[in-house]
Specification:
single chain, alpha/beta, Rossmann fold, 2 domains, 23% strand, globular
C-alpha cells in the first residue's frame, strides 16, 4: 500500500512539474516567490489609516470591542480598566511573550503567564497581524504564545499594534513568513474574527459556543 501510494503521488508531482525533491527549501522558496495573488477585494486596499479604520469597523461588526492606547506602557492600565468596566475579577492568564510589559504599575492585577487552566476566565494574547478586510486577528503558536489562550477562557483580550494591520490575508501570510525566516515557523496559525458563535440550533445566534464569548482588542499606537 505504501509503495502504491508513493507511485501515485510521484505521478501527480510529475504531472504538476514538481518532480524535484519535495522538501528542498529552494524549491519551496521559488514556488512561494512565483505564486501570484488572486483577486483582491476592494475593502483590502487603501492607505494604512484607511485600513486601520476598516479593521476597527469590521471587527466591531463581528461583535468584538476595540480600544486604542498610545503605547506599550498603557497596556496594563487598559487591561485593568477593561476588567473593571465589565465587572470581571482582576485576574487573568497571559502569553509569556507579554511578561516584559510594566505590570508592576498595576499591583492589584493578578496575572499569571503560561497556558490556561479550566479556572481561568480571562486570557491576554499578542497578535501577529490584523486583517482589515474582515476585522480578523492572526495569531501564531509558540513557546511564548500558547494557542490555547485564545480558545479556552471565556474572555479573550488581544493586543495588536496598529502598524501590524494589513489589508488582505495574503499580506498576513507574508508577515508570518518574514517572522518565520528569523526563527522557526509556528506549529499553528489561527485566524479569529469576533467571539466564538454558532447558529446551528434554530438559527439563533449563540456566542461562546466553541470558545470565548467575548473578544476585546487593544490597539497599540506606538
Amino acid at each position: 500500500m505504501i509503495e502504491a501510494r508513493q507511485q501515485i503521488l510521484a505521478s501527480v508531482r510529475r504531472a504538476l512539474g514538481r518532480d524535484r525533491t519535495p522538501g528542498d527549501p529552494s524549491v519551496i522558496a521559488q514556488h512561494i516567490a512565483a505564486h501570484g495573488r488572486g483577486p483582491q477585494p476592494r475593502r483590502s486596499q487603501g492607505d494604512h489609516a484607511a485600513l486601520v479604520e476598516r479593521f476597527i469597523g469590521m471587527a466591531s461588526e463581528a461583535s468584538a470591542t476595540v480600544e486604542s492606547v498610545a503605547s506599550d506602557a498603557a497596556v496594563p492600565a487598559a487591561v485593568s480598566d477593561f476588567l473593571g468596566r465589565e465587572n470581571l475579577p482582576a485576574r487573568l492568564v497571559a502569553s509569556p511573550a507579554l511578561r516584559p510589559l510594566s505590570w508592576d504599575e498595576r499591583p492589584l492585577l493578578d496575572i499569571r503567564f503560561g497556558p490556561p487552566e479550566d479556572k481561568d476566565l480571562v486570557a491576554l494574547t499578542p497578535s501577529l497581524a490584523g486583517i482589515a478586510e474582515t476585522g480578523t486577528l492572526m495569531l501564531v503558536s509558540g513557546a511564548d504564545t500558547p494557542s490555547t489562550l485564545a480558545f479556552l477562557p471565556a474572555v479573550h483580550v488581544a493586543l495588536l499594534r496598529k502598524r501590524d494591520i494589513v489589508g488582505a490575508y495574503e499580506d498576513g501570510w507574508e508577515r508570518m513568513r518574514a517572522a518565520a525566516a528569523e526563527g522557526k515557523p509556528p506549529r499553528s496559525v489561527n485566524f479569529i474574527t469576533g467571539p466564538s458563535r454558532t447558529a446551528d440550533i434554530e438559527q439563533r445566534l449563540l456566542l461562546g459556543a466553541h470558545g470565548p464569548r467575548r473578544l476585546h482588542i487593544i490597539l497599540i499606537d506606538g
